Amino acid sequence: MAFEGLAEKLQNAFKKLRGKGRLNEQDVKTALKEIRMALLEADVNFKVVKDFVKKIEERAVGHEVMESLTPAQQVIKIVNEELTSLMGGQKSELVFAAKPPTVFMMVGLQGAGKTTQCGKLARILKEKGKNPLLVAGDIYRPAAIKQLQVLGERLGVPVFSMGDQHSPVDIAKAAINHANTAGNDVVLIDTAGRLHIDEAMMDELKAIKTNIKPHEILLVVDAMTGQDAVNVAQNFDEALGIDGVILTKLDGDARGGAALSIKAVTGKPIKFVGMGEKLDALEPFHPDRMASRILGMGDVLTLIEKAEANINAQKAMELEEKLRKNEFTLDDFLEQMEQVRNMGPLEQILGMIPGLSSAGLKNLQVDEKQLDRIQAIIFSMTPEERRNPDIINGSRRRRISAGSGTTIQDVNRLLKQFKQTKKMMRQLSGMTGKGKFKGRFPFFQ
After folding, report:
1. What is the DSSP-derived secondary structure letter of residue 252?
2. Exposed site from 82, 94, 143, 360, fewest CB < 10 Å?
3. Strand order across the 244-248 sheet
4. Alpha-carbon distance values, 297 to 174, 210, 340, 359 (Å)
5. What is the per-residue pLDDT for 224?
6. Residue 434: its pLDDT value, please?
7. Ranges of the chain with pLDDT below 70
């Protein structure tokens, strides 16, 4: 989970502050010492940590906190604001040309995930009504061209390729001419990387930049490399000049040092973060929302956006009608569960709920395999059993458990959970009134 270690340590420090009615200067300094250690252990750049803690101290030992009726909350508010500022302050948008096509040049070291991020970014742009063109400009890495073509086919996005016998500069120039002819308003150029920064690589990237004049150069770096990612960003910016960063594998980075250091060190914003391997697992980076997640305050806005993107409003209305008529079935239950799963890994979804700390998530022990077992059990039922679970007697339960490879206890647990969910959903529907219940998260009720 992203920032897991840092989030837990910061939340523990704030817990101690909340236990005090009034704060003195020593209380604040003790908390700041814990915050400093938490950030350093999270592999945040030392100078960044020093400046960050100094800013908090200047604000936290003043009248703003000491004269407050809720001083601990004021300290947390200050840390939240400074964290947000540290990561860029506000969401950084892509810059599009006044006259298409807009050209985005993707750069980075080999293994950071440039080619995959090209595909993910193309998917986002296509969903926004753009007509992107992917350009296979990596002529060195074996199968790089084929990988981009496979991604393009899966996404329904055209891929421009001239094989590996032409120079990347010629390929890029020809791709832009092709985009003008074919009506592609965005061009995403996948460039070659190296295992480390070298002069030949930078010279090639500079040549591409000089000849095609991209509107934005986006650097792809691996969040799990910590301060190495920050150093790479700094080197690329000094040699090439970058406009933004795509930070991959943030979902697997428990420390988060790169995310907290890149903007402060390079001055360039993080524009997107990779939160998984699937093609839809690239998200715009919101500094304020990320700060809120780190401090255990949740991320309701992202949760709502995911729900709206993955849960069908018409089906939600149909579900409400079924609830009022007491016609909610196990098929509906399964469909709701699948819609929630489509929003992303459950651990990520639960981490967006305010008040659910990283420690709380550990105790919760979210088990994705449990959802697979539920699916197997429901698929092992007859259509009549799914419509009317009350007919499922002992012999039917034995047959269902045998057919799904689960135990009778698993079947009993599901049937009990279904009844509880159905009852609660009916109550919610009654409380909110006709046409107001959205039916979004019944599986977690």
Report:
1. G
2. 143
3. 159-160, 132-136, 186-190, 102-107, 216-222, 244-248, 270-274, 282-284
4. 49, 45, 21, 13
5. 86
6. 43
7. 1-2, 19-22, 62-69, 253-254, 297-320, 322-326, 340-368, 424-445
Q: Residue 36: what residue type?
A: R
pLDDT for position 77: 84
- The residue segments making up the domain with residue 38 are 4-86
Q: Are residues 74 and 116 in the same domain?
A: no
160: nearest Cα among 203, 122, 195, 211: 122
The residue type found at 200 is A
CATH of the domain at 35: 1.20.120.140
pLDDT of residue 440: 41
pLDDT at residue 257, rounded to an integer: 82
Length of the chain: 445
Let me know whether 329 and 387 are in one domain.
Answer: yes
How many independent structural domains does the chain possess? 3
Residue identified by tokens 């909110």 is: 432
Listing DSSP states for 368-399 in one string gives: HHHHHHHHHHHHTS-HHHHH-GGG--HHHHHH
Cis peptide bond prior to 101, omega within 30° of 0: yes
Tokens 């219940």: give the residue: 437
Write the CA distances from 260 to 82, 83, 334, integer angstroms: 11, 8, 39
Contact at 8 Å (CB) between 294 and 408? no
Q: Give the pLDDT score at 420.
A: 79
Q: Which helix (H) or strand (E) holds 284?
A: strand 282-284
Neighbours of 75 (CB within 10 A): 27
Q: In degrees, to the nearest 5, what angle opens at C-alpha 408 toward C-alphas 406 and 413?
A: 95
CA distance 249 to 345: 14
Burial of 137 (0-12, 13-18, 19+ CB in 10 A): buried
| Chain mean pLDDT for the chain | 82
312 SS3 class? coil
Task: Tally DSSP H helices, then E strands, for the chain.
Answer: 21, 8
Q: Can you give the pLDDT at residue 216?
A: 96
